[in-house]
Structures are given as structure tokens and as C-alpha cells.
Write a structure and sequence with these properties.
The chain is mostly beta strands. It has one domain: Lipocalin. Helix content is about 10%, strand content about 50%. The strands form two sheets. Strands 2-1-12-11-10-7 form a six-stranded antiparallel beta sheet, with no helix packed on it. Strands 3, 4, 5, 6, 8 and 9 form a six-stranded antiparallel beta sheet that branches. A hairpin with a 2-residue loop joins strand 5 and strand 6. It starts with a helix and ends with a strand.
């Protein structure tokens, strides 16, 4: 009987250890992989926590279009949380993006790139004080694929500063 109890005890220890190992300890591991295939993915760390769009309609939005004499890139993901809907985003205004280039996320104005933060009906944009960078890993015009990485700091409409880190996206436009 003692052998049976000991065996069950040892088995439970191994099962608990296995369960613990299956849980990712690093929030980055919860983000989509950094691909360059047009997989239509978006993710980042928001204040140290993994962020990906939830599965609501329109929770992932992206475009790269030529309009009014310039190119406009827009990529955002949104998720519902206790404070409402939050949505980090990146974009450009009348700015053609090139593979291998880094763009500073400063202001939302013509010829610039920007980071954005939307919380419910309030919007905020990067500035000279709270800024970041966008790097384009791939821009394949023929197959309409853009992939890249980003990070930025942003002060929201409520005065809270958010750190957006390890951002990645891979879109087909």
C-alpha cells in the first residue's frame, strides 16, 4: 500500500511540473511570430503585457493605399478590456515606405509616420516628447506584402503613458 501511495505522489509531482512548463513565462512568447509572408498578423507588448487583437469583427485593421497624392499606411489591433476598447496603431501620412528603412514615429502630419492609441472614443498620437520607431522588414509591391517591427511611448487622453514594445506586423494589402 505504501508503494502505491508513493507512486501516486511521484506521478502527481511530475504532472504538476509538466503543467507548469507548458505555460509561457515570457509575454513575447504570446505574440504572433515575426513573419514576412502576408500572414495578416499584429501584436505587441502594451505596458509589458502581450497584446493581440481579439476576435471581434474589425478588431484587426490594415491598409496601404495611394490617395490624394501620397501613400497612407494604417495598421491597428483592438481588444476589449475593463476600461473599454483599446487599440494601439501605427500609420503614415503621405509617405511611401521602403524596405529596410526606419521611420520615426513622431507626429501625425503629411510626410510623417506616427503611433496612435485609441481607448473607446478617445485618440492620442505620438509626439516629440513621446515617440518611437517603425522598421520595415519587407515591402513586396508585387505580392502586396508589408512586414515590420515597431515600438513607441504614448501619452493617452487621460494622462497615462503607455509603453508599446516588441511590436510586429505582417500584412497583405
Amino acid at each position: 500500500m505504501k508503494k502505491l501511495i508513493f507512486s501516486v505522489f511521484v506521478l502527481l509531482i511530475f504532472l504538476c511540473a509538466k503543467c507548469e512548463d507548458d505555460t509561457p513565462k515570457n509575454p513575447i512568447d504570446l505574440l504572433p511570430p515575426a513573419t514576412q509572408t502576408g500572414a495578416n498578423t499584429f501584436g505587441c507588448l502594451v505596458d509589458g503585457e502581450a497584446f493581440t487583437p481579439d476576435n471581434r469583427p474589425n478588431s484587426f485593421d490594415h491598409s496601404y493605399v495611394y490617395s490624394d497624392g501620397g501613400y497612407y499606411l494604417y495598421i491597428s489591433g483592438s481588444r476589449t478590456n475593463p476600461n473599454g476598447v483599446i487599440s494601439p496603431a501605427i500609420g503614415t501620412e503621405k509617405l511611401s515606405i521602403l524596405e529596410g528603412e526606419t521611420y520615426f514615429l513622431i507626429n501625425r502630419q503629411k510626410g510623417s509616420a506616427y503611433g496612435a492609441w485609441y481607448r473607446s472614443s478617445n485618440s492620442s498620437y505620438t509626439s516629440t516628447e513621446y515617440s518611437g520607431e517603425l522598421y520595415i522588414n519587407k515591402h513586396d509591391f508585387a505580392n502586396k506584402i508589408i512586414s515590420g517591427t515597431f515600438w513607441y511611448d504614448i501619452k493617452d487622453a487621460f494622462g497615462d503613458v503607455h509603453q508599446i514594445r516588441e511590436g510586429r506586423f505582417d500584412i497583405r494589402y
